[in-house]
Specification:
Elements: H1 4-15, H2 19-25, H3 41-55, H4 62-69, H5 73-76, H6 83-95, H7 107-125, H8 141-152, H9 161-192, H10 196-210, H11 217-224, H12 236-258
Helix pairs in contact: 3-4, 3-6, 7-9, 9-12
């Protein structure tokens, strides 16, 4: 039997979630007042995602979704109390659940790599989700499932629970940053009509013209090496960055399992520096 303290904690936790999010978790049933509704939370979310994909996120509104469903706007509020709740549910449904975890024999590095690439692929399918600000920690079913799988990948590594969470947050950050950069660059290319190769070549020519060797010697060395002569592969930067992050995590794990000295900690800069 649940103790009074645990019951209070459960009740307090439920009050933190809007009714629509509780419904997404399956802990709250559909509205019961009035006639049997022809809508469902799932239908509302699917219709909103369809609008975001075809018309853009700015076109999503409660009235537009209601029109898409052939319903009155007020009927949606029986399921979703606000547009912010609807956006959170849209992101959760669009990004979906994580990929099935690889075999435990593959190790934590393969598991985290699969996690990161899976998250990036989800953002690439639905770049409009990146326009929705992060308003808090994961609270919707699929988002919590992503967190669970990331943490589970680090079982047996010797990391503390706090370190595991920090690792997952770090990976989530670089994935979102990569996806945001890709979406912004893609939009810029579409607006200019230039290909990535044309844009990179033009940038290289610009720097050759304005960056003098005396003022920008490191940049001129980069130019001379031909790095800016052609665009790299779409995944090159993410491959490099993810590998370096995983290398660093591997160093930390080795210190936990072998008793080596702690890795050098980088402190935050002083406010007066």
């Amino acid at each position: 039997m649940m103790s009074d303290a645990n019951a209070n904690n459960e009740n307090q936790g439920s009050r933190l979630l809007p009714a629509s999010i509780e419904a997404a978790w399956g802990v709250r049933s559909r509205p019961t007042k009035g006639p049997k509704p022809g809508l469902s939370l799932e239908r509302i979310v699917v219709a909103a995602i369809k609008i975001a994909l075809t018309k853009g996120l700015s076109a999503v509104s409660m009235s537009r979704v209601a029109t898409e469903l052939g319903s009155a706007p007020m009927s949606l509020y029986r399921y979703v109390a606000s547009k912010d709740e609807l956006l959170a549910l849209m992101v959760d449904a669009a990004l979906g659940p994580p990929l099935a975890a690889p075999s435990s024999d593959d190790g934590w590095r393969a598991a985290l790599s699969r996690w990161a690439w899976g998250a990036l692929a989800a953002y690439r399918r639905h770049p409009w989700t990146l326009q929705i600000p992060i308003s808090g920690p994961p609270a919707t079913p699929n988002q919590v499932a992503w967190l669970e799988q990331g943490l589970r990948a680090l079982r047996g590594t010797g990391l503390t629970e706090a370190e595991k969470l920090s690792v997952v947050m770090l990976l989530a950050g670089i994935v979102r940053n990569e996806a945001s950069l890709e979406a912004s660059i893609s939009a810029a290319f579409q607006a200019s009509g230039a290909t990535p190769e044309e844009a990179m070549s033009s940038y290289g020519r610009l720097l050759r013209r304005v960056a003098s060797p005396e003022r920008f010697p490191a940049l001129r060395a980069l130019i001379a090496a031909g790095v800016l002569d052609a665009a790299g592969g779409q995944d090159d930067e993410f491959l490099f960055g993810l590998a370096r992050i995983l290398d660093g995590i591997e160093v930390l794990i080795r210190t936990r399992t072998s008793g080596q000295a702690e890795p050098h900690e980088v402190s935050a800069p002083r406010a007066d520096s």
